[in-house]
């Protein structure tokens, strides 16, 4: 029992020593990390102090040749966009996780061999730029970036498509140009949120057939590969831009009329498309005009009503002018015969007035008929009617002048 008690005591002592040792190691690591994170103000390039103190939610520290991210940045919790492109960074301090307000982070043109795990804890990121580094793969922790919509990893060393991206439900734009991809996984269609895919400058010798299943794609860039033949891309109804330049193809790929294509022979295709579009528009216009003419010819009742209205208006105008003419004849210049002729003229005027009243009643009847049959006419139809009445009045004046000239000659 004594030996057993001593053994337990020794074990307990060793356990406590181990815990103390681990605690000490953890504290040392934390101190080292804190030292690594802090860069003294005197070491900062000219003007950086002002940027850090500006309070601007957008901070651009690109091309300052930093080997470590300035520690002051890790406490700017109001930051929304952080650009540290074109430096010499190999890692990002863990303290970056304090900046949970970051939406955009640009780490292009650095010396990253792996995606910093601290970056994968920035769960509110929507845009992440990692181009022109030394990446060959993505960590499993990339799945944490559930808000990510745009990822650029161009100009790296990917030989296989990173399937970790399948778990990013909102990823719409993926830039993987200038890598070493030869194929794509057959279940890539699972990325149904993807709208833009850039695969230029890779090593594809055949068009990846799985892309034909991604009907939601709007932009597809396959420039600078080794593809000698493209399939019919009418299977991609949402496609709006397809680039195939610098591939050994004999003719442009077949695409929908709405797709802009970029590559050899594309200009001729686009010009022919414009000619077809112009011819179609002209044919549609001619068809509309023919339909309008046919509709007008199919409504003779309306034309008959308009004609009667013009005739009635002409009679009204004739009566009014006749009154004015009779009223200007001086009574003192007429002899007995002239008085008798004047009496006959007055009787004729009265007779004409009675006829005019009859015609006015006919006019009112025709107007009521027009209202009954022309219900639903819009303002445009009424404007046309007024215009035609005016044209009739003008024609009638000419006819009156000719009649008076003939009467004078007689």
Short summary:
One of its GO terms (cellular component) is cytoplasm. This protein is an alpha/beta fold and 410 residues long.
Any overview of this molecule?
With 410 residues, this protein is α/β, with parallel strands linked by helices. The longest helix is centred in the C-terminal third of the chain and has 38 residues, at 336-373. The protein is built from 6 helices and 10 strands; from the N terminus they run ααββββββββββαααα. The protein has helices at residues 2-37, 48-53, 266-297, 300-327, 336-373, 379-409; strands at 58-60, 81-83, 104-106, 127-129, 150-152, 173-175, 196-198, 219-221, 241-243, 260-262. The model is unreliable at 36-42, 329-339, 348-360 and 368-381 (pLDDT under 50).
Task: State the secondary-structure class.
Answer: alpha/beta
User: What topology, given as strand order, has the largest sheet?
Assistant: 1-2-3-4-5-6-7-8-9-10
**DSSP summary, beta strand count:** 10
What's the helix-strand series? HHEEEEEEEEEEHHHH
Largest sheet: 10 strands, parallel
Number of helices: 6
Distance between the termini: 160 Å
Low-pLDDT windows of residues: 36-42, 329-339, 348-360, 368-381
As a whole number of angstroms, the C-alpha radius of gyration is: 45 Å
Mean pLDDT: 79
- What is the percent of helical residues? 40-55%
Please state roughly what percent of the residues sit in beta strands, choosing from under 5%, 5-15%, 15-25%, 25-35%, 35-45% or over 45%: 5-15%
Q: What is the 3D shape?
A: elongated
Domain Disease resistance R13L4/SHOC-2-like LRR: 72-175
Biased composition (Acidic residues): 25-41
GO cellular component, one term: cytoplasm
Pfam families: LRR_14
């Amino acid at each position: 029992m004594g030996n057993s008690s001593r053994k337990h005591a020794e074990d307990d002592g060793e356990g406590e020593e181990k815990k103390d040792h681990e605690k000490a190691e953890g504290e040392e690591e934390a101190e080292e990390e804190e030292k690594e994170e802090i860069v003294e103000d005197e070491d900062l390039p000219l003007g950086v102090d002002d940027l850090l103190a500006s309070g601007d939610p957008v901070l651009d520290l690109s091309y300052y040749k930093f080997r470590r991210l300035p520690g002051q940045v890790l406490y700017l919790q109001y930051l929304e966009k952080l650009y540290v492109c074109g430096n010499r960074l190999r890692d990002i301090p863990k303290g970056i996780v304090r900046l949970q307000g970051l939406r955009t982070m640009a780490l292009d043109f650095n010396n990253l061999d792996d995606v910093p795990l601290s970056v994968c804890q920035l769960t509110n990121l929507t845009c992440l730029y990692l181009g022109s580094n030394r990446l060959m793969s993505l960590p499993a922790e990339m799945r944490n970036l559930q808000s990510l919509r745009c990822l650029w990893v161009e100009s790296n060393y990917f030989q296989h498509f990173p399937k970790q991206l399948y778990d990013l439900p909102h990823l719409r734009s993926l830039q993987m140009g200038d890598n070493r991809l030869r194929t794509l996984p057959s279940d890539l269609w699972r990325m149904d949120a993807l709208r833009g895919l850039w695969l230029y400058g890779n090593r594809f010798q055949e068009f990846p057939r799985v892309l034909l299943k991604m009907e939601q794609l709007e932009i597809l860039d396959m420039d600078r590969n080794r593809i000698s033949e493209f399939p019919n891309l009418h299977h991609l109804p949402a496609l709006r831009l397809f680039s195939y330049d610098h591939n050994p193809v004999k003719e442009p790929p077949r695409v929908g009329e709405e797709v802009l294509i970029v590559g050899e022979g594309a200009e001729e295709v686009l010009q022919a498309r414009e000619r077809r579009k112009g011819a179609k528009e002209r044919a549609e216009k001619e068809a509309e005009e023919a339909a309008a003419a046919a509709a007008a010819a199919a409504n003779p009742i309306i034309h008959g009503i308009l004609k009667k209205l013009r005739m009635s208006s002409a009679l009204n105008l004739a009566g009014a002018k006749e009154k004015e003419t009779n009223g200007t004849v001086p009574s003192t210049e007429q002899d007995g015969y002239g008085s008798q002729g004047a009496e006959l003229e007055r009787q004729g005027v009265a007779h004409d007035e009675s006829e005019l009243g009859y015609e006015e009643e006919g006019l009112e009847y025709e107007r009521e008929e027009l209202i009954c049959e022309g219900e639903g006419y819009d303002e445009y139809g009424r404007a046309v009617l007024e215009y035609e009445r005016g044209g009739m009045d003008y024609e009638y004046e000419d006819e009156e002048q000719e009649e008076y000239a003939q009467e004078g000659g007689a």
